[in-house]
Amino acid sequence: MFITNHVLAGAIIGLAAPRRPAKVALVAVGSHLVLDAVPHWGIDDDAKFRKVAIVDGLVGLATMRAVMGAVPRGTRVAVLAGMLGAAFPDADKPALMFFGRSPFPARVDRFHQQIQRESTHGIRTEIRAALAMVLAVRVLSWLRAIAADRPGRISGEIPAR
Q1: Between the CA of residue 31 and those of 3, 6, 27, 38, 153, what are the distances in Å?
Q2: pLDDT band at 153, cuts 50/70/90?
Q3: Cα 1 to the chain's mean position, in Å?
Q4: Mean pLDDT estimate for the chain
Q5: Contact in structure between 4 and 60 (CB atoms under 8 Å)
Q6: How far is 49 from 134, CA to CA, in rounded Å?
Q7: What does the pLDDT average to over 62-80?
Q8: Considering only CA atoms, which of 141, 17, 156 is closest in space to residue 85?
Q9: Are 127 and 6 in contact (CB under 8 A)?
Q10: Which residues contact 39 (CB under 8 A, 6 or more apart)?
Q11: What's the pLDDT score for residue 130?
């Protein structure tokens, strides 16, 4: 799955549980593995894959910046934890590119590789997932902002007078 989609998934998880950043990070790592098991884009041409991965990495960073500016203040720590946690399992890619080795044990790298469900036709899945997750981030951000402005209204509680 594109790193941008992992970042968006992490943002959703952070928005869902904004008061639990450590748990959000752990759940987000798990979301990475789940998304990698979904059929997604990939090719055997390393040179072409690398070009796409570099662009995606830059788009993922820009997405992190945009999300951090769009989410309510009270959610930012958890959202950042979610985005970093969701992206973390792919730290092997830039490490291999720049340093020639993965930061993870070989057993972890093998597992991560085995769960991949890549296909040249998976681009549709990537695009649909990105669009759905951008919409989810916007809606959850909006709901969190409303909840911050009107404590108790979203949860169904009646505010004290």
Answers
A1: 12, 8, 6, 11, 30
A2: low
A3: 10
A4: 92
A5: yes
A6: 24
A7: 96
A8: 17
A9: no
A10: 117, 118, 119, 122, 125
A11: 97
Report which of 130, 57, 22 is spatially closest to residue 14, judged by C-alpha positions. 22
* DSSP strands (E only) in 26-140: 40-41, 118-119
Give the CA diameter of the chain.
64
Tokens of 126: 């990537």
In 3D space, the residue among 37, 14, 18 whose CA is nearest the CA of residue 27 turns out to be 14
- Gap between the Cα atoms of 111 and 104, Å rounded: 11
pLDDT digits (tens, 9 = 90+) for 73-125: 999 999 999 999 999 999 999 999 899 999 999 999 999 999 999 988 899 99
Question: Distance between the two ends of the chain, CA-based, in angstroms?
Answer: 49
Q: Taking residues 119-148, what's their average pLDDT?
A: 94
Residue 18, both tokens: 């904004």
How is residue 151 annotated by DSSP? Answer: T
